[in-house]
Amino acid sequence: MKKQVTFIVVLCFCVVTQLSMAQQRYKDSSAPVEERVKDLLSLMTTEEKIGQLCFPTGWEMYTKTGEYSVTPSDLFRERMQAMPLGGFWATLRADPWTRKTLQTGLNPRLAANALNELQKYTVEHTRLGIPLFFAEECMHGHMAIGTTVFPTGLGQGSTWNPGLIRQMAEAIALETRLQGAHIGYGPILDLAREPRWSRVEETFGEDPVLTAKLGISFVQGLQGNDIRDGRHIYSTPKHFAAYGVPLGGHNGQQAHIGMRELFSDHLLPFKKVTAAGVKTLMTSYNAIDGIPATAHRFLLKDVLRDQWSFDGFVFSDLGSIEGIAGTHRVAPDIKHAAAMALQAGVDADLGGNAYGRNLARALEEGLVTMQDIDDAVANILRLKFEMGLFEDPYVDPAQASRLVRSETHKQIAREVARQGTVLLKNSDGLLPLPKEIGSIAVIGPNADNIYNQLGDYTAPQERSNIVTVLDGVRQAVSPRTVVRYAKGCAIRDTTQSDIEEAVQIARRSDVILLVVGGSSARDFKTEYIETGAATVGNNRDEILPDMESGEGYDRSSLNLLGDQEKLLDALADTGKPLIVVYIQGRPLNMNNASVKADALLTAWYPGQEGGHAIADILFGDYNPAGRLPVSVPRSVGQLPVYYSLGRQADYVDGGSSPLYAFGYGLSYTDFRYDNLSVKVEQDHVRVSCTVTNTGGIDGDEVVQLYVRDNVSSVVTPPIQLKDFQRIHIRKDESKNVEFTLTHDDLALYNIYMQRITEPGEFTVMIGAASSDIRLRDSFLIEEWISPARNSVR
Fold this sequence. Notes:
Layout: H1 2-23, H2 33-43, H3 46-52, E1 54-55, E2 62-66, E3 69-72, H4 74-82, E4 87-89, H5 108-125, E5 133-137, H6 153-157, H7 162-178, E6 183-188, H8 208-223, E7 234-238, H9 259-266, H10 268-275, E8 280-282, E9 287-288, E10 291-292, H11 297-307, E11 313-315, H12 320-326, H13 334-344, E12 349-350, H14 353-356, H15 359-364, H16 370-387, H17 397-403, H18 407-419, E13 422-426, E14 439-443, H19 469-476, E15 482-486, H20 499-507, E16 511-517, H21 564-572, E17 578-583, H22 591-596, E18 599-602, H23 610-618, E19 671-680, E20 684-693, E21 699-709, E22 720-729, E23 734-742, H24 743-746, E24 748-749, E25 755-756, E26 760-769, E27 772-781
Parallel strand pairs: 1-12, 4-5, 5-6, 6-7, 8-11, 14-15, 14-16, 16-17, 17-18
Antiparallel strand pairs: 2-3, 9-10, 13-18, 19-20, 20-23, 21-22, 21-26, 24-25, 26-27
């Protein structure tokens, strides 16, 4: 009897042990990911599942207890005990909106400590120990204190260099991951076809092919080849979709576009990065032909998942689920909006309140099913397992201290700024200047303002980390050169102007360098809405801030604001050689500068090394080859003016062509194009030409391939970029440049929204800009190509 009892006890112990081991299957690193996901889901309560879908703001989740110490905040502990969460957004973000400064925010080492502490609490003090995802802003560098600040999107786009953008993204990924974060918001894949819109600076420009190629490189740079290697993060391209063409240029306004334009242009970059393996995606605030993007089931499920085979998870934008009810009024309340978003395919709620406060009730009332919730949770857990967070959720703070903002990363920032600066005019070869020049007057509101050259989504900076144009000039010229400086005026405010001082130093100098433009620099006086967008102040009694661009700062005109044009006119009247540099977040009015300046450049927002990069170009240490990723209009009355519309009839009171066309940019040398060859082969078209550097110095040329479908069943662009190459050619050297056009490059969406390549004649155009075609030929496609799998039906 005693033996029997012992046997039963042992048997029970074994059964309990086996059950316990079975319940811990999700912790078994050798188990297949799908088995781990299924096991963990089976153990989770409804509340724990909903928590995984919530990504609230994170900058209040830590308490800085000393110069070298940080602990989880009481708020963090309360939230994690009330409902363990899937992750946090912008935990390390510092800016006027978050009220985090250089003193109250975290340096890289302390940031790594902070996220380790938050992760440790989560793993050790929640029931299932599911590690957190930390998501951060990474569009032009990790938006945290002490990181490298790269040029913003337009500057990146102006490089026309996918390889360099991948190198930059790898640096951003490393800096972000070493501090403990796992997801980087970027790149921005919106097409900037409305320059009055406040977020143009974040984009790669107006063209879908340029945006797609740079976007793929950005995604590949962030994600790398092994997401477990501790050096890479998941990429979150945004905003899905058609966010960059808001009515009236108002941020978040509706996009009134047809289905064919949506798929041919605005969705193309997202389709390409999905095929390249992107793992997360973010929706947008706008509605598309009346359907909110965050509730667009057709795009998020039928297209993104079913047709494109996306296998990651989808974020809402901050507050965009609430906007389904509040802004768009297509739901009676946030509970119904949350149900609509979840069923449409939005897995993660950025902000967390819409899902966290409403999904349980929506489930009880039958607005959503448990399967809806399980599917979304599985999409998030899967990526946590694939990254290896259950096995190794922590990072080494010493690594963050050593490698974040390294000299290598600074050099990459400088190179992106150099390659992304566009020379628009250079009369009589004024540039490059000799470094031994006797004197130079550096003037303008953006000549020595660190924040004005960094763009939106930038953390507070130590002054010593940023090289302004004035800094760059002083370091570049001979010790004997006299460098004089005057601000002249502000960007917007006119009470600070001292144009006379600027004119006086200009008259005493051999050459004038005027730096004008705009600013996305936030300050602590600016008020912000819940999404973080800035609000435009109307108190005219106060000194106006420089900020006229950046999220929430839409424009009704593109003119230089304040007294900047007066300053330009006064300096031009001195008769001294005048170089004008625009530092800007959108293509501003350059009509006056294009006439009166002897040399004209745009550097967009060139980042922390912008002053070095601009000086490199001005004094001949670098031969410029940046090309415009957007058209520069002559007036807002021309809008839209993007290049693929083709040539339009002139207006009664002015021309219709842009001042500077898409793809345009000058060099200090010249290039000749010859020997165009077009060969149609079985499944592709091979195009090649010869490019020769006929000038006196080595330089880069951006060779651009455009195509026109001469007769098509639906309207197609008269000119459309299909490929490009940025190549370096030594003086007197010739290089052969080859392109391959596939059937997909030639395809269109026909009247049935089927994507096919139609038979007929196509024109090939190769040139140095959309307005500067050097070679042209045509070829025939003789047979129909069957509809592709991703046809829209």
